[in-house]
Prior knowledge:
The protein has three domains: 7-52, no CATH class; 56-142, no CATH class; 168-256, no CATH class. The chain has helices at 7-17, 20-27, 31-34, 39-51, 55-67, 77-92, 100-109, 115-125, 132-142, 226-239. The protein contains ten helices and no strands. The radius of gyration is 47 Å and the shape is rod-shaped. By secondary structure, it is mainly alpha-helical.
Amino acid sequence: MMTDLPKNKQALAVSLSLNGNAKRTAMGIEVEELNTDEGMSNLINVLDNLFLKDSLDSMYEAYQNFDKFQRPENMSISEYIIEFDQRYLKSTKFEITLPDAVLSFKLLDKSGLDYQQRQLTLTACASSELKYKNMKSALKRIFGESNVIPSNEEPIVKQETALYATTSRKQKSRNFPRSDTGKSNRFRNGNPTNRYGKVTKCSICQSVLHWWRECPHKSEAVRLTETDELEHKETEMEECNITLLSHDEYCPSKIF
């Protein structure tokens, strides 16, 4: 269809255009066999004997070419569907066909999508019958020309130091009027502050001028529990700041 050469000249022209083993094989054919109207058929038969694979080998090669195909990361979903179709079409020439559902699932499995992306595609197909064309349509609608990369990486867990503060159990307030009559000489200017900068209070009458030991309402209060007493002791210990000084002039024989 593409040449004006007469049929008896076509085989000779094709033989001269070949390369490598094909050309050497063609040149071994008698000129009389090529210079006829059946010359092209004679040439093709000779070349087929040398290069044409066995039908079973060709069938297996077509199947392997289709079955082992996996979408590369740099290929968009649309390009992947086109390539998948072409490979499957070649296998159908050898009567290798798959049911529609199996072909649909294979298209999805070979797409390189992660679990969540596959589930999203299946959800899009749920509203229609499971057909190969419907699976292709769902993939195109969701991902289209995008180069989808599976997100299979484990989530990054970043550990950082957390700073927190604890507060002691609040003292139970007792219904006693505040009194300053029990003020001791230790706290002439009021109770000292705690570690948070708040003025400490008497646990009995809530006065800020004395602690529970000097409280005038102590005899009227409900007896403190052992837990309360321990808490008072801890509070006193926490609020007591001691500075130790050492100097050779004062204590030459000891190291503090």
